[in-house]
What we know:
By secondary structure, the protein is mainly alpha-helical.
Amino acid sequence: MALIQNPKPTTILISxxxxxxxxxxxxxxxxxLRTNTNPRLFSTIPSSIHNxxxxxxxxxxRLFLPAVSxxxxxxxxxxxxxxxxxxxxxxxxLFRQGDVLGSLAEFDKAIELxxxxxxxxxxxxxxxxxxxxxxxxxxxFRLDVAQNPNDxxxxxxxxxxxxxxxxxxEARKRFLEVGRDPRPVMRDAYNMFKDRGDPEKLVTxxxxxxxxxxxxxxxxxxxxxxxxxxxDAAKFHIVAACRSPYGQxxxxxxxxxxxxxxxxxxxxxx
Length: 270
């Protein structure tokens, strides 16, 4: 399998002002910290992608910012729309740093600048989840699925929000059905959440496969346990996702999310 070749990790200090970290916490990021001053809309694609010698067998759209439709809106919508894209970029950087509250402020600013962006802002939904604003998070993910009816992960995250609001059984009744995901691990994860599956079987099924599949199996197994109010099992699997090679080296936004999850729960993943 061809892996993303990432630069030397960057270590930053997260101050106590960050929502999820107190006291100050050192977080090693699997990518160089980018500045926010470059206005080029397409500079958000990780530089490591351009250096791949072979195509990735598993390609998360969370490697990119924002959705293609959102970029098109920005290109055709004038200065406010372009500024909205820059705000989304800043929000994603802040989220990767562990400043979830700051990331949400940037995502909300993007919506103020260009209301069309709200329908594509899955990043905002993730921030809302970690701020315990589950009703707004569920609304965001439902908007996202309405725009992209084949988005497996948004369906799962909507369930995760609504499980906190209404309980697992009611959330499952509200479960958003989507099209067939091309990724085997996400198809199995989707069916696990939808049909009350076994997260341990999910991890076992992908434990000897590509590193990215093991990461996603571990991450969503942990999130499933969290929805069932089983924090010890959730911690075991999400920490494993953080420590996996893909979790440590990938530019994938979800790899950063696994670390943010641990920071928000005060779990050590080093």
